[in-house]
Amino acid sequence: MRHLSALLGLLLCAACVGPEDTPSNVKDLRVLAMRLDPPELLAETCSTDPAVLADTLVRPVRLTALIPDPAGEGRDLDYTLWTCSSQDDDTCREDRVELARGVTKGGELVVDLFPGPGTSRLGDGTFLVQRILEKDLYNGLGGVRMPLVLWVRGGSEQIYAQKLMVYGCRFFPEMQANVQPELPDLVLAGEPWVAGVPRELSGPGPFEVTVPDLTGREEAYVVPSFELKPVNLQEAWEVAWHASLGSFSPNTTGGADLGGGVARHRVEWTPPRNAQAQEVRFWMVVRDGRGGMSWLERTVKYTP
Amino acid sequence: MPPTVASNRSVLWLLLAVLSLSSVPAWAQAYDGARREEVDAGVHTPVLTKAPELIQTVEAVYPPEAAAAGKTASVEMLVTIDEKGQVSDVQVVTPVGDGFDEAAIAAVRQFQFSPAEVDGAPAPIQIQYVYNFVLQPPKVEESAPPPPPEATLTGQLLARGSRSRVGGATVRCGDDPEAPEALSDEDGRFTLKVTPGTCDVRVVANDFHLFTTKEELAPNETTEVIFYLMPKAPGYETVVRGAREKKEVVRRTLERQELQKVPGSFGDPIRVIQNLPGVARAPAIAGQLIVRGASPDQTLTFFDGVEVPLLYHLGGGPSVLNAEFIDRVDFYPGGFGSRYGRAIGGAVDVATRKGSSDTLHGSVKVDLLDSGFFLEAPVTEGISIAGAARRSYVDVLLPVVLPDDPEGGTLLVLPRYWDYQVRVDFGAKRGSEPGPGGRHSGYVMAFGSDDLLNVVASGGGRNRDITVDARTLFHRVKGDWTYRHGNFTSVFTPYAGYDLGSFGFGETKLDASIWSLGAREDLALELLPWLTARGGADVRFEHLVGEGRVPFLGGIQYPAFPGGEPKVELQDIRRVANTFDGALYAELDMKVGPVTVTPGLRATYARIYGQDRFAYDPRLWMRVQPTEKTAIKGSLGLYSQPPEAFNLEPAPLGNPALTHERSFQSSLGVEQQLTDIISVDVTGYYNRRYDLVVSPGDTVRNEDGTLTRFQYSNRGLGRAYGMEVMLRHAVTRDFFGWLAYTLNRSEQRRVGSNDYRLTTWDQTHILTAVASYRLPYGFELGARMRYVTGRPTTPLQHTFDRYDVDRNNFTGTFGPTNSIRFQPFHQLDLRLDKNWIFQSWTLNAYIDVQNVYNASNVEATFYDYRVREQFEVPGIPILPVVGVKGSF
């Protein structure tokens, strides 16, 4: 099996040329998350006629974006929020409807949308929802999924971040609107990591961080199949780990795999070897896999 | 409305019966190779059924000046014998001068042989012959003494290293030309009666060094001996061969010597095909065959005419057929005969070889990670057997080599594979007279392969426990019954098979089994000297069972939320599909002067997953041979490939409306024999593929408001055009090699989309040079040099980040698809072999060095997580591989 040794060599070669930039290390302008409250608006009836869904579409929505800018030194950030008709159009080039515009700074951006984005109309007066349904591969079977695209610019850095607003409908009586996932307090180096309680870490690490048992928090829910039969699913939250210094390994945890297994949430944070004493910021973003999203923010005083 | 199945089956069998009844006498062609019994592409490969025997010799006139100078010589000649046994041509292989060459030619021209027979009919043939000039001492007149007592020297002549029998050798005592001599028979046996005393034994045989020894022979006693003769050319075999009947515009045949000695191919015969024109370079060590722009699954591989599901162990490991078991490989990049179907790309037919008829031979190969053996032997008169097997022990060694689980848990990676081949040949012994009712021969062969991969990663600090079980397995049993009578040849090939593909990941299990039963009947009949008909049937039935336990599939069974990975309830699935694919084919060779026109038709009826499908593939070949050494050839034709059975599954998993993929293939070329051993072939081609199966298919809204989303549709289009050049030096005693060049462009698009764009594996220029030379002292040096245009890629044009918040991943901003290329690929591989020939076995050691000058070729790319920058993965650096093989 000379071939296996050759393959091993190839993989080793790949390992030699890897990038140094890692997703868990937040060193420049990023959009780490966008939270919509509520995460889902559920209509009592299912229809492809926007007029029938009007009561649901008009309901207000709050968008909160997590936009760290650690190297920006408090600079102004231009932003614009659009909605458009196609999920594939991640910059909203077509059928663009502007929802908000302004200037913000690194941190959390909050935009209240009232009436809700579901009432958006195109230039010709057509309900944007109507156009979305026309382009939807599922023709609204999974609900109306309205793309919201947030454009943020700081200096020469630009980011287009897309998030879907979910307008569901009660296809089966047992269907319930999604509830925002909320992480419990984490455990850092074996001790609870509570907001507002200062923590200090020293040494080269790594430092273990875990998420307590999520039993009871991950919802069971039902979706219609293409044959219009109920499919029973259960949330398997995924957590993305970020820090302003060092990196997490792994950088995401959770989620279910093809074999039905659900991963545990255990990571290690490792500071760089030449790090100076400083305050390190951490963001843990949780996704429920159906549009719900939230995050925890913590700080640690780190000394080498 | 298509006719019913029953009526079509009746038509199929009726046509077959008509073809069988119209079969009558005599069809013979030139001889090709010493042990070819196969029918190839519907064209019978002729077999030497009776070797020529020397029945009258003429003594050469000893050149007076050479005699005066006391010189002796051996003149090696190529002697062409016509169908009457008369010598029609004599050529000296290596002139020795001093008048010996001319004297030998003059004498040999007067020799008379018994006619050689090919397929039972007299035929011209070429043999090697060595004329030995030895000085005769002056005769002394003396009175006749009483006859002395005799001694007998008897024994057998064997080739040193292989123990093959050496026939046709001359055994004598001393240089005295008057001394009695003996000629060894087919089994290498001889009996020599001489004067008692010391015998200075001299054995002279073609392709062997002169053998000398001394034997003390007692009066009236018999001394039995075995002499081991040293072969002159242990590297390459030299066989008498003629031209095989060739209908296809391009059929490239590789012989055993070429298959095992090409540097950089790991000694795997299948990989050598990648060095031929028309084949794009597959990435890294993958052995995929990308032929004239077609995807790998559109080129079929057959072992002795029976399709096999995979070529390599574990995806890119050694090929599943032992190299020792392979006699030759025929590669058709396109325009193949009507005998072949179910493919719209190319075809590869690997011919296995029958077991030896002289004695037990074999080889043993021990590698770091697997071991295998090959054995061949005669069983009894007319029956021989050959077998091979291999088993890896990677699963045993990897745990020793791999470090402890860095996560502190359990980490096991256990790949293993094994394969086997057994072939039993039976039929008339070569050289025997065919009976009045024709000549029967055949063989039964079984072969198979089993790959298993277990991966277990669990416990410790690991967030996710992973258990993967993957298995691919196949078995085939096939028979071959060949009947020849005059101009008529019939080959019947039944076969049965079992395939298993199994995959397990955690709680998810999926098994796919295929039981197959098929048969081929190939008939050939020379109706008139200018008209030959070929026809046959090719039927296959498959029973497919897919079953397992899998989660509901987001996006396929329900509308999934982007990026969501919920825990999904599992479902038990079981699907059964029966497929029948029956084809009748017919071809007619019409030869008018230098022009041969071959129209052909392959008509296919298929019933796939309850759906009836028909395909009619008319094909036409033309060959113009204005001179003996020049041929102009061209072809046109349609080719069809049925969709995978389970792709006809109702939506959302498939599309019951899928039809055959089709292609129109055309080519035009010229081949020129530059010398007896060097030829050049230039062929242009244009292939258009249509009705290709692509995914996803269309989404249809039904009247009741439900959606039907088909997984597949026949909306793919493709085309490829270019030119292939093959400059080839045939396998001779010391050298073989070729220069292959392909100019190619392959494009694709989807119906309704924009213009054609390059396929991922389009490679404009592909240049491969292969050469192997036999050096003195048992050394052999081979080299392979390749230059290939970089494959297309899509440029990254990052100006801003694009982040999908729900999926938590970034996408890139790219330029036009496949609008730029990677750097060209170039690589030199060298191989050095050393053979040690011992009395009864041979040891071969080799070093195969890949990428000798350590070129940094790009094999793959990846991006940083924000898709801002592209990183290149270089290919294999300089990589020496050492191997040892013993054979006997």
What features would you describe in this structure?
Chain A is mainly β and 304 residues long. Chain A has two domains: 23-170, Immunoglobulin-like (Sandwich); 173-304, Immunoglobulins (Immunoglobulin-like). Chain A contains three helices and 20 strands. Chain A has helices at 2-16, 54-57, 128-135; strands at residues 33-37, 40-43, 61-67, 77-83, 97-104, 107-113, 144-154, 157-169, 186-188, 191-193, 200-202, 207-210, 220-224, 230-234, 238-243, 247-249, 252-254, 266-270, 278-287, 293-303. Chain A has a five-stranded mixed sheet. In chain A, strands 10-9-12-18-16 form a five-stranded antiparallel sheet, with no helix packed on it. Chain A is globular. The chains are: A mainly beta (304), B mainly beta (888). β14 of chain A pairs antiparallel with β34 (567-568) of chain B, so a sheet runs across the interface.
Q: Can I get a quick summary?
A:
Chain A has 304 residues and is mostly beta strands.
Number of helical segments with 4 or more residues of chain A: 3
Overall CATH class of the domain at 252-352 in chain B:
Mainly Beta
- Helix/strand structural class of chain A: mainly beta
Biggest sheet details of chain A: 5 strands, mixed
Number of separate structural domains of chain A? 2
CA(first)-CA(last) distance of chain B: 63 Å
At the first level of CATH, the class of the largest domain in chain A is Mainly Beta
Characterize the biggest β-sheet of chain B. Answer: 22 strands, antiparallel, barrel
> Biggest sheet of chain A, strands in spatial order?
2-8-7-4-5
Strand content of chain B is over 45%
What are the key terms here?
heterodimer; A: 304 residues; mainly beta; Immunoglobulin-like; 2 domains; five-stranded antiparallel sheet; 40% strand; globular; B: 888 residues; Ferric Hydroxamate Uptake Protein, Chain A, domain 1; 22-stranded antiparallel barrel; five-stranded mixed sheet; elongated
